[in-house]
């Protein structure tokens, strides 16, 4: 599929992207190709020089040519100067310290957009909640982006979509307008909880898929885990106030499929190494970037227990990480140790956390795809 011609840069549409890893650099490219005036902040000066002068980020996006008008800097002050929208793509566990450093440099009216898919380990807070806690900013000026977004594929301009979520539909629409081009389409919704938790939870299921892949189990096993994992994701997110249809959309099902099945996924790769017998510390050493699925297991299970939500697949991932469960044993215990028959949907066995709405949510999601995203919530 041939990408459409990129529109010219629109003067005055000034945005900053904080974090020059694979996703931060890719998103800076998305914005630049959509017409924005983008400055990308890289912590390392040598990386900023390579991006600005060589139009490459060889560490994270080998072989990708970056837009000529994409600028990079190692100065946080220069990156943020005059930026009306600030897209943040740093490791979730370092978000708080980065926000503290950026706080006094931000335009008072800037919109802050999270590109991250994790929860803060110490607090269990979602990324938008950390942003709202650290910065003097109203929820209406915070947004989150999620979806099936494997960075290298998008950097190669392979067509995909994402969803922009904010408490303010107007804010979500403003961000989505910038984050749209010939190969990247942004939809919108106002379900920030579901959008963010979808991005977090799919990482954990992707680790489970990687584990059984590493063990050598086949497509039936992986399909079963994806399907049952989506139920766990939906039950959890709905218990925290999400709309179930969000989990059947781009931020849930879409992201789950991409992350679970692709060797480009860090979470899938980490799981596969675990399934092959590597220990947790060895896996962490082999991963070039932060693997959010590994660091989010503990906080997510604590949040699940607080709401009485059962997440047996995620619990088994935790046991594999701890070395108390043989990776080969994760599949026979897909849902529970009980031999009593259970309903496939949570409504069938009396648990009303939200999985019962899955079929309706699937239908709505497919209807939206068929109709080009024109639904009551837009995504």
From TrEMBL:
GO terms for biological process: carbohydrate metabolic process; glycerol-3-phosphate biosynthetic process; glycerol-3-phosphate catabolic process; glycerophospholipid metabolic process; phospholipid biosynthetic process. Residues 15-170 form the Glycerol-3-phosphate dehydrogenase NAD-dependent N-terminal domain. InterPro entries: 6-PGluconate_DH-like_C_sf, 6PGD_dom2, G3P_DH_NAD-dep, G3P_DH_NAD-dep_C, G3P_DH_NAD-dep_N, NAD(P)-bd_dom_sf. Pathway: Membrane lipid metabolism; glycerophospholipid metabolism. Residues 336-351 have a biased composition (Basic and acidic residues). GO terms for molecular function: glycerol-3-phosphate dehydrogenase (NAD+) activity; glycerol-3-phosphate dehydrogenase (NADP+) activity; NAD binding. Residues 328-352 are annotated as: Disordered. It is found in: Cytoplasm. The active site is at 202 (proton acceptor). NADPH binds at residues 22-23, 43-44, 60, 117, 151, 266, 292. The keyword Translocase does not apply. It catalyses: sn-glycerol 3-phosphate + NAD(+) = dihydroxyacetone phosphate + NADH + H(+); sn-glycerol 3-phosphate + NADP(+) = dihydroxyacetone phosphate + NADPH + H(+). It holds the Pfam family NAD_Gly3P_dh_C. NAD(+) binds at residues 19-24, 151, 266. It comes from the Bacteria. Its main location: cytoplasm. GO terms for cellular component: cytosol. Keywords: Cytoplasm, Lipid biosynthesis, Lipid metabolism, NAD, NADP, Nucleotide-binding, Oxidoreductase, Phospholipid biosynthesis, Phospholipid metabolism. Substrate binds at residues 117, 266-267. Belongs to the NAD-dependent glycerol-3-phosphate dehydrogenase family. Catalyzes the reduction of the glycolytic intermediate dihydroxyacetone phosphate (DHAP) to sn-glycerol 3-phosphate (G3P), the key precursor for phospholipid synthesis. This is Glycerol-3-phosphate dehydrogenase [NAD(P)+]. It comes from Cryobacterium tepidiphilum. The gene is gpsA.
């Amino acid at each position: 599929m041939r990408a459409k011609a990129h529109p010219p840069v629109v003067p005055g549409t000034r945005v900053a992207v904080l974090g020059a890893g694979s996703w931060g650099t890719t998103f800076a490219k998305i914005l630049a190709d959509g017409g924005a005036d983008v400055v990308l902040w890289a912590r390392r000066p040598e990386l900023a020089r390579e991006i600005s002068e060589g139009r490459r980020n060889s560490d994270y996006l080998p072989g990708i040519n970056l837009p000529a008008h994409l600028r990079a800097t190692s100065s946080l002050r220069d990156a943020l100067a005059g930026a009306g929208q600030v897209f943040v793509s740093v490791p979730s566990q370092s978000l708080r310290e980065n926000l503290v450093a950026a706080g006094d440099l931000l335009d008072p009216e800037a919109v802050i957009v999270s590109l991250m898919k994790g929860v803060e380990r110490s607090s269990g807070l979602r990324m938008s909640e950390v942003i709202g806690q650290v910065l003097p900013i109203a929820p209406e000026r915070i947004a989150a982006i999620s979806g099936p977004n494997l960075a290298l594929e998008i950097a190669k301009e392979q067509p995909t979509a994402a969803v922009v979520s904010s408490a303010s539909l107007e804010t979500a629409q403003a961000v989505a307008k910038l984050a749209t081009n010939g190969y990247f389409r942004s939809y919108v919704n106002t379900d920030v909880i579901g959008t963010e938790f979808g991005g977090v939870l799919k990482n954990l299921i992707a680790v489970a898929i990687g584990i059984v892949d590493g063990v050598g189990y086949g497509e039936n096993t992986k399909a079963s885990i994806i399907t049952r994992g989506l139920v766990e994701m939906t039950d959890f997110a709905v218990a925290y106030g999400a709309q179930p249809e969000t989990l059947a959309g781009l931020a849930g099902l879409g992201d789950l499929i991409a992350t679970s099945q692709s060797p480009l996924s860090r979470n899938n790769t980490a799981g596969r190494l675990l399934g092959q017998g590597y220990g947790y510390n060895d896996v962490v050493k082999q991963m070039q970037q932060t693997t959010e699925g590994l660091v989010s297991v503990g906080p997510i299970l604590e949040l699940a227990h607080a709401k009485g939500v059962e997440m047996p697949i995620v619990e088994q991932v935790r046991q594999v990480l701890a070395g108390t469960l043989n990776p080969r044993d994760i599949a026979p215990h897909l849902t529970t140790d009980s031999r009593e028959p259970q309903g496939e949907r949570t409504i069938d066995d009396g648990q009303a956390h939200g999985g019962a709405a899955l079929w309706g949510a699937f239908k709505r999601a497919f209807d939206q795809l068929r109709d080009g995203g024109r639904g009551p919530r837009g995504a």
